[in-house]
Amino acid sequence: MKQINEVFSRKKHPVRFLQIGEGNFLRAFVDYGIDVANEELGFDSDVAVVIPRQARKGHDKRKAFRKQDNLFTVCLRGQKNGKPYKENRVVTCIDRVLSAYDDYDEFMELAKLDTLEYVVSNTTEAGIVFVDTDKFTDEPPEHYPAKLAKFLYARWKHFNGSKESALTMLPVELIDHNGETLKKCVLRYADLWELDDKFKAWVNDVCIFASTLVDRIVPGYPRDDAEKICQELGYEDALLDQGEPFGLWVIGDTGLKDKLNISTDKWNVEFVDKIDVYKERKVRILNGAHTSMVLGAYLAGLDYVGQCMKDEAVRRQLDQSVFGEIVPTVHLPKEKAEAFARAVFERFENPFVNHALLSISLNSISKWRARVLPSLKDSLSNTGHLPKWLAYSFAALLAFYRTTKAGDGCLIGSRGTNEYEIHDDADKLDFIKAHAGLSTPEYVTSVMKQKEWWGEDLTAIPGFYDAVEKHLENIEKSGAKAYIEELGRE
Predict the structure, then answer these.
(1) What's the chain's Rg over C-alpha atoms?
(2) Cα 429 from Cα 374, distance rounded (Å)
(3) Helix (H, G, I), strand (E, B) or coil at 333
(4) How would you classify the pairing of strands 248-251 and 212-215?
(5) Predicted confidence band at 56 (pLDDT cuts at 50, 70, 90)?
(6) What is the DSSP code (8-state) at residue 258?
(7) Euclidean distance between the first and final Cα of the chain, in Å?
(8) What's this model's pTM, rounded to 2 decimal places?
(9) 217 and 244 Cβ atoms separated by less than 8 Å
(10) Dist CA 265 CA 263 (whole Å)
């Protein structure tokens, strides 16, 4: 069978987008959307992709992209306008894929591109942080905002601080006010590194940091169906990416609407003054449902979201937690929040997409903090008692992560006789490994007291420690499957 680049070829456009992150989501969302806008709206943009992390040995993703001339297929499967929908789109807008570490000089040369206008990023919820150990002399600095600060400084110097060279940052990390937070981090690095005050003014007054919200379920590489899909397509594609048809990008800056002409029937982009309500609805209901369900469901023997929706016990958990514990905390009229939740469940039931629970499990510590903790605290405040399932979800996280076995850049957990990889920030995995062998009360306490992880000492939440310890002991005593069934009957 032919390779994808033997069947398709790229059309050259100016590089207007710098993309920090090469993962499945950005490829099936932003890159897909830009490709559609190029074709349907004449948007005329290519994307330069930068991999922000140091590659693990034997895991250099650049090779896969180069082998295919940066071409890949996005396969959308699901329901659209009440009917089954299937789309296979070859994305042709990726100009190059670089490593911030192995291609550092080439990465920094991108700062000199006069066509560059936008920077989009997805570095996980834990990616937008300020860490004072990052140095200006690092090539590159470790954390994304430090990389961006150094990149912007290089651009400011090259173009002598011109207004025309200012960039618009469009972060999609799922944290509150991601644009504002990213800007604050960049300016803190400018202060730490004692950079020129004129540069700080250029960043603060001329560059744009727009907070955004994204919504599309992207399971990623369809491992179980890849061979069948390639046979259907008529070519090999090692970078296949699968997602649902629904796609929404909410950008919190109405001033960008005319300039950023990218919204189409296939990729809805909305420009608003305030995105807080959109974000809370999506993060708490959709993302919160995922994060609070998947780790326990995986330990219960399930592998995909679709299986969870068909499993009586896990589906009961979802119904009780989403409609009973999460929806009441969303600052929308009840009927609107419930309607969104019902639509989310319909998306979870998508029969065409196998969304792997292990894929959703990546970086679960920061995800739980951003997606579940606010609902848990608001529910406690509103009702006077801890929400049963949201408290259980934290215990499920502790159970999923509890192992002292290390792998290559990960921890190795076990589900019966099967092993699975646990991926998160290296310092968090090191801490878990060092404390997982303690007694259950000591293990629970040590994790809950990590203020840097949770933004607070979780043992200070009334009743939370006792509930989590009880849930974890029961998960490990009875097994996740039996305990989910038991909790659902209470």
Answers:
(1) 23
(2) 24
(3) coil
(4) antiparallel
(5) confident
(6) T
(7) 55
(8) 0.74
(9) yes
(10) 7
